[in-house]
Amino acid sequence: MKIKIMIDNIKYNNKPQGKEIGSIVKRLSNNKNITKLSVEELANKIIEGYTVKPAICGRKQKEWQEQQVFMIDIDKGLTIEKAIERSREINIIPAFIYTSFSHTEDNHKFRLVFISDEVITNINEALAIQHVLNSLFSADEHCKNLNRIYFGGRSIVYESYSSVINVREILNKYSDIWYNERLGKKSDYNNRYKNNIYYLSRKNPYKQTNDNNNIKYINISCTKKPHNNNKYNNNISINIVGEKTLDDYYNIKAIKDKNIQYLKSVLNVKKEIILQNEQELYDYIKKEINLIELLNIDNFNNFRCIIHNDNNPSAGIIQDDDGTYIYHCFGCGFKGNIIHVVQALTNEKTYKVIEFIKEIYNIKVKKTDWQKEQIAILEANKQMLLNGDFEKYYPNVYKLIKRYIPQLITMIDIAIMNVRDENFTDNEGNIVFFISNSELANLLNSKSNKRINQRNVLFAFLKLLKKLDKDEIPEKDLKKALEIQKKYKHNNIVNYFSIGDYDIYRMKESEKRATMWYAKNMSMTGLSYEGIYRTFGKEIANELYPQYKKKVIKTEEGYKEIDRTTSKASDERTNDIIKIIFHLINSKRYATEKEVIEILQSKYGKILTQVQLKRSLQEILYIYNLKRIRCNKEIKEQLGITSKGYPFIIVKND
């Protein structure tokens, strides 16, 4: 059998050093050094002093193409004799073993070379094989990268050139080792591997037999696996040699039968989990409960789908960026979290699925009287929005928000799901919660994060919710938000909100704000920090944009934080608008917004001019003693306006 491998064209009698290593790495990044050799020829090349790279790969691991040779480096702890003994115990036999340049009789340093029974073209499989071999032989952890090079050596101390390793069997049998690596947990062979025995029958309600012909040769291993309480406990894992069928997945059968007692037993669930609210419950179920362990899937990367009749392995389980376990089958297209998977197996309604999972894992949501009171307040707010009270008693507020009520109700629902204890409140004692604009847009099936944010600003202006400054965010929440901001390099932390009681006092203030909005001819187009600042002043602007009230500038002394006002570019556009308005008033005694936009659109563009005019108009009217009025027949005759209809015009406030 000829195998493909990368071999350097320069041999060394001693371990290469410094610049020599750099030159070797460079040469072995070139496809010109790819060659095909028999296993024995490869062994001879290595002891002649030639460096090899087992993988067909460039300088970086992402340039990996394929691999059939796997090597591990032993430089402490294990002797050559012990390594050979271990390989026979687990029936993973190297093709040969050679000593490194620094090997001595007192300190064994050597490398095991394995040949796979097939060429590996999937990098994840190659990584898994490399890590499993490293773990089983307690090899140097630095050998896990596939782009690694291995120097030549002194002599061959063991040879079995015809031996190959069964890749599929290794990936199935030792999938838990790779699983722990994916979770960042160290797997130790000495803790994992104990012995192989003949095992007659599991004491299992789903598989009982008195037929001794059904004896199977299995591997019992002590392994550290994540459990329901997110701790790593030593548990017995039983892996039957050979491929599992769906009939062997006892946990899945127990889920289908809703056998809570059996699942509690095999999952070793003992501790009671107490949570404060529904959001904590959903997060715990999706992120803390190990879906792989619940289903008892051996090879979680690639297995037969449990949702449909899958003849070829087409399903896998991963953890996404926020820690949620996701089941995905490329055969039938099913994709979902633990709730979706259990629902597919049980055919139960969602609320029953959640209760089923809660019972398995001893999860309870316990609310205090204070929490119940806060939820009642928020539920009453929702009823006011839906029962016609807003439209009847607060018409100006209703007129402003009627199109956006679904978003406000969603915000209240999020608040309800996040009611915690009294430590998580704002300065007024209202419950605190957070959600990003993108998450909220996704919930509302909106493509515009900007519009979502503008509506929340409108709600805040009307005092129907509050956007929190950093000093009002609970300490634990703020710490977490700052960590996320730093991790993802965001300019600001995620938005934190609070919602109070829509009582008569708050609604009186809300109606007053709505009246102000209409009096200033404010619109959603002009809704921004600058628009609020120019129209209603600095205090209200800072209230609605608490994270935007400061900005950092560079000075001769360094960077300095100052109060935000308006930008230089915005001021320039505003000054041009003022000039155009007065030019029109001086020439014909009035100006229209349409005329201002038409004149300046060639300089700034139509949309930017429209937005700037909306943001600056109230400030211009106030400072320059102007007013915006709607024409009537008399005014049109006085000013000689010949256009159709009765447009708004800007005139001097004489």
From TrEMBL:
UniProt KW Nucleotidyltransferase keyword: yes
Keywords: Nucleotidyltransferase, Transferase
UniProt xrefs under InterPro entries: DNA_primase_Znf_CHC2, Znf_CHC2
GO biological process: DNA replication
Membrane-spanning ranges: none
Keyword NADP among UniProt keywords: no
The Zinc finger CHC2-type domain, residue ranges: 276-368
Principal EC category: transferase
E.C. number(s) listed in UniProt: 2.7.7.-
GO molecular function, one term: zinc ion binding
Protein name (record): DNA primase
Biological source species: Koleobacter methoxysyntrophicus
Gene name of the encoded protein: dnaG_1
